[in-house]
Amino acid sequence: MSSPHCIDPSCFQGKLVKYFSRQLSCKCKVALEERSVELEDFPRLGHWFRIVNLRKEVTQEMSPGELTLEGLLELSEEQVCELLQKFGANEEECARLNASLSCLRNAHQLGEGPRRNTQISSHRYTHYHSNI
Q1: Where is this region: Disordered (predicted)?
Q2: Which end of the chain is more exposed for a tag (fewer CB within 10 A), N or C?
Q3: How far is residue 65's CA from residue 127's CA, in Å, rounded to a whole number?
Q4: Alpha carbon distance 64, 81 (integer Å)
Q5: Domains (ranges, CATH) in the chain?
Q6: How far apart are CA 107 and CA 101, in angstroms?
Q7: Cα(54)–Cα(13) distance, rounded to whole angstroms?
Q8: Around Cβ 42, how many Cβ atoms within 10 Å?
């Protein structure tokens, strides 16, 4: 079942959510000790913020590396709003980001399916990512 906030997966935004979900899934499959600096930077939070249409004034207040998409996914809606408001975000931006994070959580959970031995090498991730 999809969240009432989620976007149609056949539309452009839905495809972006699936793309970011795939990036998260692939990253999770790479053992921590095998992750490169480049891999740690994916998926890019700045790209997600542009998709959600956060104002540059808000995102420029954030220090590079201060937040990650994975970190935001672990926060409650209230925590996300508190955090964003520290950087000057308004209620509408908080609501948009929370709705988009909800969609991404749903897509990521649906895409994971049953857990198996999912560790892959960073070489395979890089190859997969370059072909997306």
Answers
A1: 111-132
A2: N
A3: 25
A4: 19
A5: 17-130 (1.10.150.50)
A6: 10
A7: 15
A8: 19
Task: Please check whether residue 124 is in contact with residue 22, taking contact to mean a CB–CB distance below 8 angstroms.
Answer: no
Tens of pLDDT, residues 53-71: 999 999 998 877 788 888 8
The encoded tokens of residue 23 equal 């990036």
**Tokens (6 digits) for 121:** 């090498």
DSSP track, the chain: ---TTPPPTTSHHHHHHHHHHHHHHHHHHB-GGG--HHHHT-S-HHHHHHHHT--HHHHHTSPTTS--HHHHHTS-HHHHHHHHHHTT--HHHHHHHHHHHHHHHHHHHHHH-S-----B-HHHHHHHHHT-
Q: Which residues contact 96 (CB under 8 A, 6 or more apart)?
A: 52, 53, 54
